[in-house]
Design brief:
The complex is a heterodimer of chains A (265) and B (402). With 265 residues, chain A is mainly α. Chain A has twelve helices and no strands. Chain A has one domain. In chain A, helix 3 packs across helix 4, helix 3 crosses helix 6 and helix 4 runs parallel beside helix 7. Chain B is of the alpha+beta class and 402 residues long. Chain B has two domains: 237 residues, Rossmann fold, CATH 3.40.50.300; 151 residues, Coagulation Factor XIII, Chain A, domain 1 (Distorted Sandwich), CATH 2.70.50. In chain B, the strands form four sheets. In chain B, strands 5-6-7-3-8-9 form a six-stranded mixed sheet, sandwiched between helices. In chain B, strands 10, 11, 12, 14, 17 and 21 form a six-stranded antiparallel sheet that branches. In chain B, strands 13, 15, 16, 18, 19 and 20 form a six-stranded mixed sheet that branches. The radius of gyration of chain B is 28 Å and the shape is elongated. Chain B starts with a strand and ends with a strand. The relative contact order of chain B is 0.11. Classes of the chains: A mainly alpha (265), B alpha+beta (402).
Chain lengths: 265, 402
């Protein structure tokens, strides 16, 4: 898929675009585990660490952990969502700079590089989700039909992370000032999003802001898939609609700016 | 656009923004940058199944042109029409990662050039055969030599299936035999493809290309069959040289005389010998090639073993030929200041700058002692000569006289 393509739909529907994204994801994966003895085996480390942290640290230390049944899996799901979103936030926004040499000398469609990060992160995400099933099994949580909501939760999860990453990327094509504040944005979002705590703990009058946060929405979607009696999802409908519209706009802007990228990156 | 044309470029211009001076922090926030014209009104057409070479000095816009053709960067003015799919190989081993194995790298590289992974998997033996990598294929490429990397990255070219292929200096690291292989390969490859090659290598331009486009500071100065195009190119470069040597006298004086074991050289200079035998001392270094050149040296010798000779070099200091006075056939007087003349037919020289370096030779041992001075002269004739490209004065017929 080449940069000269006029219509973005042609690109997104072509097999070549997805195959290219996959091969670049394969490249990232190979680079990540180059010269390691255990190789791909390391992908199971993040979920295990997530389980250890939520069960033995937060589960014991936090007062709220006593109010919530199965707190460790509750926090684990929050952590899982956050892990993937922050990954996309950080890496899809810098993916063009990372592949500078390729971008300046090849006409591979530029969206391939953020997309490669999506696939790369998906490997971790699937390990986390698999981990969630294992933990549910260990704690004897019954998995009901709610689990099928994962079919749209995962795409929504990807879109959330990718939209944030692409926004940062678009703002930083010519001037990279925005990268200076990205770490602070990430930590602020981490605090305002109920990852380790319950949304009910946020005061009533501030909850409108919570409802505009699609990351909180994705977390609650995962929680409702695995656990019962969580925060009602319909509160987040508006934020999801805004998110998807934003995603489409961001893609269109990216497609328009795409030709200039090689000059500035 | 006619049937046979695959690329038509019309009045193409491209600007870059430049910061031409050191700016303070505050000024850099507000000031506008200067515009630099990388390509200026370039137009050309390329036909199907043609091999076109693009050459020119560094910074003349060759790579910019290829990048625009490949669609990597936008252009500012003009139109481009392209019929067919383009694959651009702008640098060899693009995106190769040092930690990955040769096999993984080649798979990813091929995919980014639009070659399906399946084709590479099935034809891995062809790649091995072409690149001569052997058992290194599954090693991380940080253990490869740069020639191996070049060969590996070039080996996927055979699977490219697009109609137009662009090469930018892909011949850099490979050794002579592999370059030959590449040349033969491109010839074979061009039977059903259109190829554009950016290179500085004369042998590629002359032997491989059907046509050469010369860029100079963003302008197209020539578009012709290779030898004629290169002729224009070298003349263009030499224009600056003529200006520099307009006021230089083709003469060197040794004061005190250059002395080696009793062989003294006082002076060396060039004169022009007209057809009636008259010798003309020139005030500048520019000679036409209608007459004979005479290299004159004033020497004094007491040693029968020593003699004088000259090396002729081109403007790039490549030694073209040497000749010396054989004192066994032409006798010189010892212990007396003598003028030695060497007469050359200046028709053997192509247009351009040449240098003459005098040396003293020991006729018995064959040892050379170079004088560190050079005489410059420029040959500038109006006629267009093919030999301008390949400076090789064969059958140098030198008439010595004392």
């Amino acid at each position: 898929m080449r940069v000269n393509e006029k219509n973005i739909l042609n690109i997104l529907l072509s097999k070549e675009f997805w195959l290219l994204s996959l091969i670049f994801a394969y490249r990232e994966l190979k680079i990540k585990f180059a010269q390691t003895r255990l190789h791909y085996f390391w992908v199971i480390l993040p979920p295990i660490m997530g389980f250890v942290i939520t069960t033995f640290f937060f589960g014991r230390l936090f007062k709220i952990s006593k109010d919530i049944e199965y707190y460790n899996i509750y926090a684990y799901l929050g952590m899982m969502t956050w892990y993937y979103i922050s990954y996309l936030f950080l890496y899809s926004s810098t993916s063009l700079i990372q592949n500078q040499d390729i971008i300046q000398k090849s006409n591979v469609y530029r969206l391939v590089f953020p997309m490669a990060k999506v696939f790369m992160g998906l490997i971790d995400l699937f390990c986390w989700i698999f981990g969630a099933f294992v933990i549910s099994f260990i704690y004897g949580i019954k998995i009901n039909f709610g689990i099928f909501t994962l079919v749209y939760t995962i795409p929504l999860h990807i879109i959330t992370g990718l939209t944030f990453g692409l926004i940062i990327l678009l703002f930083s094509v010519k001037y990279r000032d925005i990268y200076q504040i990205v770490p602070y944005i990430i930590s602020i979002i981490m605090i305002v999003t109920p990852i380790f705590y319950h949304p009910y703990m946020i005061p009533e009058y501030l909850r409108i802001f919570l409802h505009l946060n699609p990351i909180a929405g994705v977390i609650e979607l995962y929680r409702s898939a695995f656990l019962d009696g969580t925060y009602p999802i319909k509160n987040f409908t508006l934020s999801f609609i805004i998110l998807i519209l934003l995603f489409i706009v961001v893609l269109l802007i990216f497609h328009k700016k795409e030709k200039q990228i090689a000059e500035y990156v | 656009m006619e049937e046979k044309e695959v690329i038509v470029v019309c009045n193409l211009s491209k600007y870059y923004e430049l910061t031409t001076f050191k700016q303070s922090f505050f000024r850099s926030l507000v000031s506008r940058k200067e515009k630099f014209k990388a390509l200026n009104d370039v137009s050309f057409k390329i036909n199907r199944n043609e091999i076109v070479g693009i050459t020119g000095p560094n910074g003349s816009g060759k790579t910019t042109l290829l990048k625009i053709l490949a669609g990597i960067i936008p252009y500012d003015e003009g139109t481009i029409k392209i019929k067919g799919k383009i694959t651009a190989l702008l640098s060899s081993g693009l995106g190769f990662h040092k930690d990955l194995t040769g096999y993984d790298n080649i798979l990813i590289y091929a995919k980014s050039l639009g070659i399906p992974t399946k084709v590479i998997r099935e034809n891995i033996h062809k790649i091995l055969e072409f690149s001569e990598i052997g058992k290194f294929l599954y090693e991380p490429i940080k253990r490869y030599s740069s020639g191996m990397l070049d060969r590996l990255s070039f080996s996927v070219v055979q699977f490219i299936n697009s109609e137009i292929v662009l090469f930018d200096e892909v011949f850099s690291f490979s050794d002579v035999s592999f370059q030959n292989k590449i040349n033969n390969y491109i010839k074979e490859f061009s039977k059903n493809k259109t190829i554009i090659i950016v290179t500085h290598k004369l042998n590629v331009l002359i032997n491989l290309c059907d046509r050469v486009i010369v860029l100079y500071k963003g302008n197209k100065i020539a578009d012709d069959i290779p030898l004629y195009a290169l002729n224009t190119y070298y003349k263009h470069i030499n224009l600056n040289l003529y200006d520099n040597f307009q006021y230089k006298c083709p003469e060197i004086n040794f004061d005190p005389p250059f002395n080696f074991n009793g062989f003294k050289v006082f002076k060396c200079y060039i004169v022009e010998c007209l057809s009636n035998g008259e010798e003309v001392r020139k005030q500048n270094s520019i000679f036409s090639n209608q007459f004979y050149l005479c290299i004159v040296s004033e020497i004094l010798t007491t040693n029968a073993e020593l003699s004088i000779g000259y090396i002729i070099m081109d403007s790039m200091n490549n030694r073209l030929t040497l000749f010396y006075l054989d004192t066994s056939t032409i006798k010189i007087k010892y212990n007396e200041k003598t003028t030695v003349k060497a007469k050359l037919n200046s028709k053997i020289f192509s247009n351009g700058l040449f240098k003459i370096q005098p040396f003293i030779v020991n006729l018995v041992s064959g040892k050379f002692i170079f004088l560190d001075s050079e005489i410059f002269f420029v040959i500038n004739s109006e006629e267009k000569k093919l030999s301008d490209v390949v400076y090789f004065p064969f059958n140098l017929n030198v008439e010595w006289s004392v």
